[in-house]
């Protein structure tokens, strides 16, 4: 990975933000309804915080939201919640202007790390092949599924690095396409996700301080998105609240954690997203942290997955270099997967 060179996993937001946001055609009323999770006609702080996209890659905290309210005079009665009336008075342009004007540091982002992708397919270095084969044995998944999954992602977190809690894959609706099967099955869906059925996370070194993998709500009895944020404690915040999560795994060189991001559909295939798989990388307080991720991609739509596998087998047989290259490198070289 060092030889190949690593790229920033997330780049600082650009000034294009304001422009880009103005392109989105969505009414203020629609935004309000979307944010008002409990439908009480008020926007509580946590309802705004839950929609991480509003931050344009910047991690929002209760503090940063309050600062924003103050800057754009969003909450004139000062009760900490936005009524529909207050929200209507708000000039969304001021909000975008404010967001665009903020000086953002790497530590303010959702993710502060560097990564690269390493090829594991036919002809790859023996170490890379052996990792793939071990993943096959560990997960007991068919070789044709594992072989056609994403390459190995190697990630470096320097001191001060983190990755706030997230899911490795997205929910799948009938109108959602999977990144890996999209081109081959000719889907033109409005939504796309990476359909990562399984995550195998390898720890490549011992970290001097911090850098644990946190699963904030693992083994909770019930899942409630809004209960992730209580008062000013956001359990997803891996710079501040890793000590409050349910399961914390300390990096140990040569070990790995493995989990499913989706439940079973009860019929031997991939079902709904498992929301308990929410996880993040805690702040590295000392030293450097190196990990690698193997994701196993499975389309919850079985027909599309089988079609994809058939096509891939056909390409391999024809020895179509161009296609092979596309599947292993091109589609991942610039992909930033925000989940
Ligand atoms: Ca509300
Ligand atoms: Ca108010």
UniProtKB/TrEMBL annotation:
UniProt subcellular location: Endoplasmic reticulum membrane
One annotated GO biological process: regulation of erythrocyte differentiation
Pfam families in the cross-refs: 2OG-FeII_Oxy_3, EF-hand_7
Catalysed transformations (reactions): L-prolyl-[hypoxia-inducible factor alpha subunit] + 2-oxoglutarate + O2 = trans-4-hydroxy-L-prolyl-[hypoxia-inducible factor alpha subunit] + succinate + CO2
InterPro entries: EF-hand-dom_pair, EF_Hand_1_Ca_BS, EF_hand_dom, Oxoglu/Fe-dep_dioxygenase_dom, P4HA-like, Pro_4_hyd_alph, Pro_4_hyd_alph_FE2OG_OXY
Gene3D superfamilies: EF-hand, q2cbj1_9rhob like domain
Cofactor(s) listed: L-ascorbate
SUPFAM superfamilies: EF-hand (SSF47473)
Record-annotated Fe2OG dioxygenase domain positions: 148-298
GO molecular function: calcium ion binding; hypoxia-inducible factor-proline dioxygenase activity; iron ion binding; L-ascorbic acid binding; procollagen-proline 4-dioxygenase activity
Keywords: Calcium, Dioxygenase, Endoplasmic reticulum, Glycoprotein, Iron, Membrane, Metal-binding, Oxidoreductase, Repeat, Signal-anchor, Transmembrane, Transmembrane helix, Vitamin C
Superkingdom of the organism of origin: Eukaryota
Bilayer disposition of the protein: Single-pass type II membrane protein
GO cellular component: endoplasmic reticulum membrane
EC number: 1.14.11.29
The protein's assembly and partners: Homodimer.
General function of this protein: Catalyzes the post-translational formation of 4-hydroxyproline in hypoxia-inducible factor (HIF) alpha proteins. Hydroxylates HIF1A at 'Pro-402' and 'Pro-564'. May function as a cellular oxygen sensor and, under normoxic conditions, may target HIF through the hydroxylation for proteasomal degradation via the von Hippel-Lindau ubiquitination complex.
Protein name: Transmembrane prolyl 4-hydroxylase
Protein encoded by which gene: P4HTM
């Amino acid at each position: 990975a060092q030889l190949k060179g690593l790229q920033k996993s997330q780049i600082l937001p650009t000034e294009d933000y304001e422009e880009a946001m103005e392109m989105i055609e969505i009414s203020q009323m629609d935004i309000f309804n979307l944010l008002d999770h409990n439908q009480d006609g008020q926007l509580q702080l946590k309802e705004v915080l839950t929609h991480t996209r509003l931050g344009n890659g910047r991690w929002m905290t209760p503090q940063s939201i309050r600062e924003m309210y103050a800057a754009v005079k969003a909450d004139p009665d000062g009760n900490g919640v936005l009524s529909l009336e207050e929200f209507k008075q708000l000039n969304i342009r001021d909000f975008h202007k404010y967001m665009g004007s903020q000086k953002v540091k790497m530590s303010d982002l959702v993710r502060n790390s560097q990564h690269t992708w390493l090829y594991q397919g036919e002809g790859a270095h023996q170490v890379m092949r052996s990792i793939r084969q071990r993943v096959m044995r560990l997960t007991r998944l068919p070789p044709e599924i594992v072989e056609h999954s994403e390459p190995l992602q190697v990630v470096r977190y320097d001191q001060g690095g983190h990755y706030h809690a997230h899911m490795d894959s997205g929910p799948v609706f009938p109108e959602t396409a999977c990144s890996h099967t999209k081109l081959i099955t000719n889907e033109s869906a409005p939504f796309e996700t990476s359909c990562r059925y399984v995550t195998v996370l390898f720890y490549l070194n011992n970290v001097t301080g911090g850098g644990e993998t946190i699963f904030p709500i693992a083994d909770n009895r019930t899942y409630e998105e809004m209960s992730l944020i209580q008062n000013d404690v956001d359990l997803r915040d891996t710079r501040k609240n890793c000590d409050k999560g349910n399961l914390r795994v300390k990096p140990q060189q040569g070990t790995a954690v493995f989990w499913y991001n989706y439940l079973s559909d009860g019929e031997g295939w991939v079902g709904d997203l498992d929301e308990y798989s929410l996880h993040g990388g805690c702040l590295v307080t000392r030293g450097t942290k190196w990990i690698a991720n193997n994701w196993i991609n499975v389309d919850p739509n079985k027909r599309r997955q089988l079609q994809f596998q058939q096509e891939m087998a056909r390409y391999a047989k024809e020895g179509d270099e161009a296609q092979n290259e596309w599947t292993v490198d091109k589609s991942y070289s610039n992909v930033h997967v925000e989940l």
